[in-house]
Every structure is written in structure tokens, then in C-alpha cells.
Amino acid sequence: QVQLVESGGGLVQPGGSLRLSCVASGGVFSINGINWYRQTPGNQRELVASITSSDRTNYVDSVKGRFTISGDIPKNTWYLQMNSLKPEDTAQYFCKAEVPQWLSPDGEVWGQGTLVAVSS
Predict the structure, then answer these.
(1) What is the pLDDT of residue 33?
(2) Strand partners, 104
(3) What CA–CA distance (Å, rounded) separates 88 from 91?
(4) What is the signed CA dihedral for 75, 81, 32, 42, rounded to 10 degrees?
(5) Mean pLDDT by 10 residues, the chain (120 residues)
(6) Distances from the Cα of 82 to the Cαs of 31, 64, 66, 111, in angstroms?
(7) Three-class DSSP labels, the chain
């Protein structure tokens, strides 16, 4: 069973950078893609960035040019490099893996999240 653990969140000043990590274990070979979401209190989770097994990436418009999603398959780790951070980037960030339904009925596995706070 695939499990995901995020890390790398914290408090950073506007204009600063953070790199979030998402480490996968168990059945990593079955992961078809990784997505980073973020959520603020009272709001739905927003898809921020995604990467497929063929390294195709996609970003929400608000982070294009500032965030970069990447994967290090030998380390079973995916990253979200966040530069030029803004206060509106403050959120809980979650990693989600897309997996076959024989691993998860809804075809997805979520991590527990890591908090990013951008403030002076």
C-alpha cells in the first residue's frame, strides 16, 4: 500500500523560498502521477501542480513561473520548489498520488500535509 509523507513546510518571509518533499513508500512503482494541493481554512483543496509518470507538468496560473514540481524516482521522492512566495501562498500543502484502483478504490492516496506560512 502506498503511503506518502510530506515535509519542508514552515514560516517564510514574502519573497522567500521553500522546498516541499513528498516521500512515498510501499508500491511506489504503481504511482502514475503526483499532485500537490493546498488548502486554507474554510476552502476546498486547490490543485497547485502536477507531474505525470512521463514527467509532464502542469501548474495553476497563480504559481506559474514561481513553483516547480519534480521527482527523484530512485529516492521515491517528489518535490515542490516554491520561490518568490507571497502571503496568499499560505496554506496546508498536500501531496496526492494517482494509483491503480487495485491499490486504492478511488485511485488516489493522500499525505498528511505540511503547513506553509508566508508572513513578515
Answers:
(1) 95
(2) none
(3) 8
(4) 130
(5) 94 98 89 96 96 95 98 94 98 96 90 97
(6) 23, 10, 6, 18
(7) CCEEEEECCEEECCCCCEEEEEEEECCHHHCCEEEEEEECCCCCCEEEEEEECCCCEEECHHHCCCEEEEEEHHHCEEEEEECCCCHHHCEEEEEEEECCCCCCCCCEEECCCEEEEECC
- Cβ neighbours of residue 48 under 8 Å, at least 6 residues apart? 35, 36, 37, 38, 59, 60, 63, 67, 80, 93
Cα(80)–Cα(95) distance, integer angstroms:
9
Give the contacts of 7 (CB within 8 A, at least 6 positions apart).
20, 21, 23, 114
Of 26, 3, 21, nearest to 93 (Cα)? Answer: 21
What is the chain's length? Answer: 120
- Which pLDDT value is given to residue 1? 83
Q: One-letter amino acid identity for 13? A: Q
